[in-house]
Amino acid sequence: MLTEWLLNDSQHPMLILRALGGFGKSALTWYWLTHDVPARQFIKVVFWSFYEGDASFDNFVKETLQYFGVLNAGQLSPYDQTNLLLNYLRNPGVLLILDGFERVLRAYGSMGAAYQGDEIQNDDSQDTSRDCINMLADGLLRSVGAYGGMLKGKVLMTTRLTPRAVLVRAMHASPLQGIREEELRAMHKDDAVDFFHAQGIRGTHTEIESACEPYGYHPLSLRILSGYIVNDRTLPGDIAAAKHLEITKDIIQNKHHILEVGFDSLSAAQKKLLGRIACFRAAMDYEALKALAEDGRGESPTRPYVEFDDDLKILESRGLLHWDRKTNKYDLHPIVRRFSYDRLTAADRTGAHKRLVNYFQGIPEREKVEKLEDLAPVIELYHHMVRAGNLDEAFALFRDRLANTLYFQFGAYQLRIELLRALFLDGEDKPPRLKKEGDQAWTLNELANSYSLSGQSRRAVPLLELLLELQNDLQEKAGDKKNLAIGLGNMADDQLKIGALNAAERSLRRCIDLCREISEMYVEGVGHAELGHTLIYAGLFDEAEKDFSEAVKLFEKGNDVQYIGVTWSYRSLRFLLMARDNPKSKIENLKSAIESAERALELADKHGLGYPVPRDYVRAYWLLGAAYRASNELTLAEENLSKALSLCRQINLVESEANILLELARLRYAQGDFKDAQEKASEALVITERSGYVLTGADVNLFLATLALEGYKLESFKDLSNKDAAIFHAKEAKKLATGWEEIDGKVVYDTTGKYVYKVAYDEAEAMLEKLK
Predict the structure, then answer these.
(1) Is residue 282 helix, strand or coil?
(2) What is the pLDDT of residue 482?
(3) What is the average pLDDT value for the chain, to the nearest integer?
(4) Which residues contact 702 (CB under 8 A, 6 or more apart)?
(5) Which of 238, 337, 532, 619 stands 20 to 30 A from 684 (CA)?
(6) Which has the closest alpha carbon to 736: 757, 752, 755, 717?
(7) Residues 353-367: pLDDT tens digits?
(8) pLDDT at 183
(9) Strand 746-749 and strand 14-18: pairing?
(10) Could you write out the DSSP letters of every residue in 26-48?
(11) In sequence order, what E strands does 303-429 have?
(12) Is the dihedral of CA 652, 658, 664, 668 positive or negative?
C-alpha cells in the first residue's frame, strides 16, 4: 500500500496512517523507508518523529529546510519557513514522514502526553482537541490537501488521531481532495507468523494464528506475548506456552491482560526499574538510566552493576523496553510507559523523580541559549520537579530560567502554556497549587497572556477572571489597586476579541474608576483608549471619541507617545466603521481614516526612535491599507497591506492576521481576482474560527456571502446554490455580530441590540432581507 501510494497515486500527496497506540506505526514506516523507498527517485527524505525531545512543529520545519540547504532558515519568520517548505513539496523527489503527529494536536498538547493513552483529552466546549497546537501546522495540512495533484512531493503521516485541518470544513468527515487516509486495524496474519518465527518461537502457522487472534493481532500485545513465550520456564520458545494465559472473548481485556502478565513475570527489582524508566518522558541514554538506581551508579549494596545490565536485557527480551543501539538510547512505548508508571507506589514515584531532579540539576547551565533545544535539560528538570511534587521550586525555575527566554527570544507561547498548565493540579478553574498568592497571581497572568498571544482568547478570559478574584483579595491586604486595574484591562482585551462587548465595557469602566481612586494616569488613559475601541464596535461613535480625547489628554500629561499613536489607530478604525454605517458621509470619513492612520504611523516612528513596538506598525499599516482600499486607491492599499501582513507574520501576531487577510481579500475582489479573494478570506476564516475572534469572523462571513453570490463558494458548500451559501454566511455573520456574555456558566446573547457589533449586524440583516 505505501509503495503503491508513493509511486502511483499522483492525486494524493499526503497519506495518513491512523491507528491506536501499540500498532507499530513508527516501526512500519521506518522499515518501509529503509527497505522499499527508491533512494535514487527520492533524494530529499526526512523522517521526523514528534515523540522525540523537542520535536516541535517549528523545529521540524526549520531543521527540514536546513537539511534542504536553506542555511538561513532560522532567520526567516515561522510563516515564511512553512511557506517555503510547501514550495519544496511542489518538486518531485521530496518525501516527508511525520511520525506520531498526534503529539502536534491539542488533545496531546500537555507535559503528560508521554503517559497518555488513546482517550482524547478535551477540555474545550468548542471541541478543538484535533486542532494543531501550531496554527501554521494547520495551514500546511490544509494547503497540501487543497493543492492535491499539483504537488509532486509526498507526505506520510502516522497518527492516533486525524487532524481536523485535513477534513472538509463544514462536514468534518471526508478528507480534502489531496488527502488519503488508511486505518490500520490489525497486523496481517502472515506477518504475525513470520514475526513469531523470527523470535525463535516454535509452532505451526495455525497454532500461532490461534495464539494471536485473542489479541486482535495488536502488534504491541504480540511483541509482549512473544517475550512471554520465549522466556516461559516450562515451555521456553514453544507456542504452546500461550495456552497458560487466561483468554476471554474481549480483545481489549486480553491486550491489557498480556501486558499485566508480562509485567508480573518480572522480579520486584525489574518492576521497579521499569517503573522508574517510565518517569522519563522520552528516550534517555544509559547514564541517565543509571541515575535512577539507589546510589546513582546503576548499582546498590545488594544489587551489583552487572545485575543492572542484566535487568535491562530482560526488559528488552520481554518486549517492554526498546534499546536503539545507533543512538544508544532507551525508550518505552507510551502504553507500556503509562502502565508501568501507574504501578509505582507513590513513594517510589516521588523518589524516582527527586533522583532525576538531582541528575538534571547537575547538568551545567548554558552561558548563552541560542536555540530552543538548549533549554531541554531545564525543561526536563522542571518536569521532574512537578512530578516530585515540588511545585514551588518548579515555579521558581520557570520564572527565573524559562519565562523570559521563551517569551521574548523564541515567542514559544504554546510551550509556555504546556509548562504552566502543569502547575494547575486542580484544573484551570482553580488557582495553581502554589504557596504564595503572589506566585499564583503571576502564574495565572502568564498563562492567560500566553493563551491570548497564541490566539486562544476563550481560554484566557476565565483565567483572568480567576486572577481578578485573587487580586481583589490581595488588594484588600496590600491596597494594590493598580495591578487590579491592569488585570481588568487585560481581561477586557480578550473579552472584546471574543465578542463579549458588555463584559469588556464593564471591565474597562471598573479599571478607569480604580485608576481615578489612586490617580494612576497612564493605566486610566489605556482604559479610556480601550473603552473607546470597544464602543466603536457597538456603534457608539460619539461616546467613543469622548474616551479617545480623554485618553490623549492623559497620555500627553505623561508624555506617552506610544499609546497616543495607538489611540489614533483606533480613531482610524472608528472612521472606517462610520463609513460603512453611513454611506452618505463615506468620502469624508475615509479621508479622516487615512489621516488618522498616517498620524498613528508618525507616532510609531517617533516612539520607535527609542524602542519600536512592531504591533503598532502592523495595526497602522492595516488600517491605512483598509482606508485606501475603501477609497479605491488600490496601489496604495496593496503597498500598506503587504507591509502589514509581512510584519505581522514576522512577529507571529495572530490577533491581527485575520483582519489583514480579510482586507487583502476585499482588495483582490476590487481588482477582479475573485479566486485569490476567496483563498485569503478562507484563510482568515480558519483563524477566526480557531481563535474565537467573532467580530472579525462576522466580517469574514459577510465577505464570503458576497463572494458566494458571485459563484465563488467554499469547497464544503459546493452542493449548495450560490444563494443558499450566501444565506448561510449572512446568518453566521449575524450570529457572530450578536454580543453575548456568560451568566451562571451559560452563554446569553444580547437581545437589546446595544451590545452587538452594530455595523456587521446591520449589514447581515440587510443582506438576509435582500436574499429572501
Answers:
(1) coil
(2) 87
(3) 88
(4) 729, 730, 733, 760, 763, 764, 767
(5) 532
(6) 757
(7) 998 999 899 889 888
(8) 87
(9) unpaired
(10) HHHHHHHHHHTS-TTT--EEEEE
(11) 322-324, 329-331
(12) positive
Distance CA 737, CA 576 (A): 17
Note whether 658 and 700 are within 8 A (CB): yes
Residue type, 227: G
Q: What confidence category does residue 67 fall into, taking pLDDT thresholds of 50, 70 and 90?
A: very high
Q: How confident is the model at residue 616 (pLDDT cuts 50, 70, 90)?
A: very high
Written as one letter, the residue type at 406 is: L
Q: What is the pLDDT of residues 245-270, one digit of tens each?
A: 877 767 677 777 788 888 888 998 89
- CB atoms near residue 202 (< 10 Å): 15
Counting DSSP H helices and E strands in the chain, the numbers are 33, 10
When pLDDT is cut at 50, 70 and 90, the band that residue 23 belongs to is confident
CA 72 to chain centre: 25
**Degrees to nearest 5, angle at CA 520 with 514 and 526:** 85
3-class secondary structure for 476-540? HHHCCHHHHHHHHHHHHHHHHHCCCHHHHHHHHHHHHHHHHHHCCHHHHHHHHHHHHHHHHHCCC
pLDDT score for 443: 96
Please report, to the nearest 10 degrees, the dihedral formed by the alpha carbons of residues 269, 272, 273, 274 taken in order.
Answer: 120
**Considering Cα of 257, then 260, then 266, then 267, what sign does the dihedral take?**
negative
Q: Which three cell numbers stand for residue 382?
A: 522542571
pLDDT given at position 479: 61
Mutual orientation of helices 561-581 and 614-630 as an angle, nearest 10°? 20
The percent of residues in the chain predicted with pLDDT above 70, rounded, is 92
Q: What is the mean pLDDT of residues 224-241?
A: 88
Query: One-letter amino acid identity for 297?
Result: R
- Which residue has cell 504475525? 192
Residue pair 214/247 in contact (Cβ under 8 Å)? The answer is yes
Place of cell 523470527: 198
SS3 of 179, please?
A: strand
Confidence of residue 297 (pLDDT cuts 50, 70, 90): very low
Over 80: is that where the pLDDT of 611 sits?
A: no
Please give the pLDDT value at position 140. 94
Apex CA 19: angle with CA 338 and CA 27, to 5°? 75
Residue 168, pLDDT above cutoff 90:
no
Instruction: Give every CB contact of residue 302 below 8 A, 6+ residues apart in sequence.
Output: none
Q: Identify the H or E element spanning 347.
A: helix 346-361
285: three-class secondary structure by DSSP = strand
Measured over the CA atoms of residue 463, residue 466, residue 472 and residue 477, the dihedral's sign is negative
**736 has a pLDDT exceeding 70:** yes
For residue 202, CA distances in Å to 194, 316, 554 come to: 11, 20, 86
Phi and psi at 743, nearest 5°, equal -125, 120
**Residue count of the chain:** 772
Domains, the chain, ranges and CATH?
Answer: 2-183 (3.40.50), 189-264 (no CATH)
Give 130's pLDDT tier (boundaries 50, 70, 90): confident
Cα–Cα dist 537/573, whole Å: 9
CB 115 within 8 A of CB 349: no
HSE of 93, CA atoms in CB hemisphere, 13 A: 7
Residue with cell 510551550: 415
**Rounded to whole angstroms, how far apart are CA atoms 477 and 444?**
19
> Is 650 in a helix, a strand, or coil?
helix
Q: What is the mean pLDDT of residues 675-685?
A: 93
- What DSSP character marks residue 300? B
Give the β-pairing of 94-99 and 44-49: parallel
Question: Which three three-digit cell numbers place residue 487?
Answer: 488585570
pLDDT of 120 reads 56
